[in-house]
Recover the amino acids of this structure.
């Protein structure tokens, strides 16, 4: 089963791609192909089987780590309400959480019909510092993908669903977007997704301390607006990972639509300058 889970994402993407190609041939060139639906069904089945949790899986106790942000935020898609929190165990997301900056003055744009999309600077989360939740080693750090405009309207949400389908075909790097992954030790890894382009302050191999700035919140990958997607997992590669429960010191696990305030971090002094970028 482990081997199947390893090859399943590539197999599913092949099925999606074949379905799209055959559907285009039928729609634009009138070439009928019942195989298109066979590939669609196969892709759905492969995805479903590969993302189910192992039978009788028992998750470890929540790992307590520091919050990845500071200030006032709102929780969405929280594991406090359901597991898997994002509707899938794929990519180690079973206990993932999304949070958006929610200032008390109500300056975060509301979801609605208009405007269709907004520039990222309209959202208070954009550019917010992402902090190391514990001591560890950076095992992956990418920030080359562009930040796209928001999808926080009903028409744009429909576009996001179609866009998400295509991103999934392209692979997890297009779903997660720019990201940072930290090895916390003992087979536990922290992943920060949708990082702002060009905002990395660490590189692979760097040692980090709790509360140290890693990058900035952005709007890359499969994202409706600038927000932080955070998760713990048992493998550095989301394609092979299972999620791990977490709790944030001083916060716990905020429920859906719950606002919380993360305190300012207590940052330990760096022992050397090797983490500084030139």
């Amino acid at each position: 089963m482990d081997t199947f889970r390893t090859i399943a994402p590539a197999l599913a993407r092949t099925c999606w791609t074949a379905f799209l190609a055959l559907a285009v041939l039928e729609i634009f060139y009138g070439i009928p192909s019942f195989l298109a639906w066979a590939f669609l069904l196969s892709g759905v089945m492969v995805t479903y089987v590969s993302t189910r949790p192992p039978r009788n899986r028992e998750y470890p106790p929540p790992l307590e780590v520091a919050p990845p942000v500071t200030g006032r935020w709102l929780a969405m898609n929280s594991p406090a309400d359901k597991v898997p929190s994002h509707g899938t165990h794929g990519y180690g997301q079973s206990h993932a959480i999304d949070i958006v900056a929610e200032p008390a003055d109500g300056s975060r744009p509301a979801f609605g019909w208009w405007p269709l999309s907004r520039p990222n600077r309209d959202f208070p989360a954009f550019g917010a510092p992402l902090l190391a939740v514990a001591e560890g080693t950076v095992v992956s750090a990418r920030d080359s993908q562009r930040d796209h405009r928001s999808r926080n309207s009903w028409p744009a949400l429909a576009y996001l669903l179609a866009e998400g389908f295509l991103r999934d075909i392209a692979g997890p790097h297009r779903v997660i977007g720019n990201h940072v992954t930290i090895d916390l030790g003992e087979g536990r890894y922290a992943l920060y997704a949708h990082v702002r382009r060009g905002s990395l302050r660490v590189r692979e191999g760097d040692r980090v301390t709790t509360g140290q700035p890693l990058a900035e919140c952005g709007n890359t990958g499969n994202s409706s607006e600038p927000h932080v997607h955070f998760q713990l997992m048992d493998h550095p590669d989301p394609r092979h990972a299972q999620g791990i429960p977490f709790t944030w010191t001083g916060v716990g696990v905020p429920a859906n639509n719950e606002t919380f305030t993360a305190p300012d971090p207590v940052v330990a002094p760096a022992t050397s300058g090797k983490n500084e970028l030139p």
